[in-house]
Design goal:
The chain is mainly alpha-helical. It folds into two domains: about 180 residues, Cytochrome c-like domain (Cytochrome Bc1 Complex, Chain D, domain 2), CATH 1.10.760.10; about 35 residues. The chain contains eight helices and four strands. Strands 1-2 form a two-stranded antiparallel sheet. A hairpin with a 5-residue loop joins strand 1 and strand 2.
C-alpha cells in the first residue's frame, strides 16, 4: 500500500505542485500561510481522533462529491477511532462492480478492504462535470502541497471578495492563499456547512481544521507508528551508549591506574 502511495506521489506533484509553483512565480510573490496548532506536530504528536472523525464527516458529506481518495482504504478509518462495525457500515453505503454468478457484470456493497469510492468513473467524466477542471485526488494532498495541513486550512478559509481592480476569469473565485489568487473551486465550506455528529459547533475555521486533520491522517496513516518506533530506537541507542561507556570504563580501568 505504501509503495502505491509513493508511486502516485509524482503524479500528484505534477498535477498540483508544479502549476501552483508556476503561478506563484509568475505572480512574483510569496504567500505566507497562517500557522495552526496541530496535535500531530512534533516528535510526540498524535492525531486528534475526534477532529479526524469530524473531518471524515466533512469529506463524506462535502468533499467526496468531487474529490476521490483512490489510494485510501475504508479499513484505514480504524486509525481515527471508528469501530469495525462502523467501518463496515460506511463501506457498504457504496457499491462496486463485480461479476455475478451468471458471469454478467453486477454490483456489490463495499467492504473495509475496498478503496474509497470515487465520485466519477474516470478523469474524463470528472472534467466534464467540473467545467474542464480535474478535482485532485485527496489521498496525498497534504504531502503534495508545501505547507501541508497549514495550506489545506488556509485554502479553505481564504475565500473572499476580489480586491478592487482584480478581474477574475470566468468561473474563477478569489482566494488570498491560493497561488495566483484565482481558483476554479468555489468555497466548499462555510459556517454550519455540516451538522457534526458529536455536537461540535461547525464554524468555518473548525470545519477547515477538522478536514485538514483528516486529510493529514489519510496522507500519513502510519505517522504515529513511525514516531513510536523512532522513540524506541532512540531509547535503545541511549541505553546502548550507556552500556558501551560502562564497558569502556571497565576495560580501561587498569590502564588509568
Amino acid at each position: 500500500m505504501n509503495i502505491k502511495r509513493f508511486a502516485i506521489l509524482g503524479a500528484v506533484f505534477g498535477a498540483l505542485l508544479l502549476p501552483a509553483t508556476f503561478s506563484a512565480a509568475s505572480a512574483e510573490e510569496e504567500i505566507s500561510l497562517p500557522k495552526q496548532d496541530w496535535s500531530f506536530s512534533g516528535p510526540f504528536g498524535s492525531y486528534d481522533k475526534a477532529s479526524a472523525q469530524r473531518g471524515f464527516q466533512i469529506y463524506k458529506e462535502v468533499c467526496s462529491a468531487c474529490h476521490s481518495m483512490k489510494l485510501g482504504y475504508y479499513r484505514e478509518l480504524a486509525g481515527i477511532g471508528l469501530s469495525e462495525a462502523q467501518i463496515k457500515a460506511v463501506a457498504a453505503e457504496q457499491t462496486f462492480p463485480t461479476i455475478g454468478d451468471d458471469g454478467q457484470p453486477a454490483e456489490r456493497p463495499g467492504t473495509p478492504a475496498d478503496h474509497f469510492h470515487s465520485p466519477f468513473p474516470n478523469d474524463k467524466a470528472a472534467r466534464a462535470a467540473n467545467n474542464g477542471a480535474l478535482p485532485p485526488d485527496q489521498t496525498l494532498l497534504t504531502n503534495a502541497r508545501e505547507g501541508g495541513a497549514d495550506y489545506i486550512y488556509a485554502l479553505l478559509t481564504g475565500y473572499e471578495d476580489a480586491p478592487a481592480g482584480v478581474k477574475l476569469g470566468d468561473g474563477m473565485n478569489y482566494n488570498k492563499y491560493f497561488p495566483g489568487h484565482q481558483i476554479g473551486m468555489a468555497a466548499p465550506l462555510s459556517d454550519d456547512r455540516v451538522e457534526y455528529a458529536d455536537g461540535t459547533k461547525a464554524t468555518l475555521k473548525q470545519e477547515a481544521h477538522d478536514v485538514a486533520t483528516f486529510l493529514a491522517y489519510m496522507s500519513n496513516p502510519e505517522l504515529e507508528t513511525r514516531k513510536r518506533l523512532g522513540l524506541r530506537i532512540l531509547m535503545f541507542l541511549a541505553a546502548l551508549t550507556c552500556v558501551t561507556y560502562a564497558v569502556k570504563r571497565q576495560i580501561w580501568s587498569d590502564v588509568h591506574h
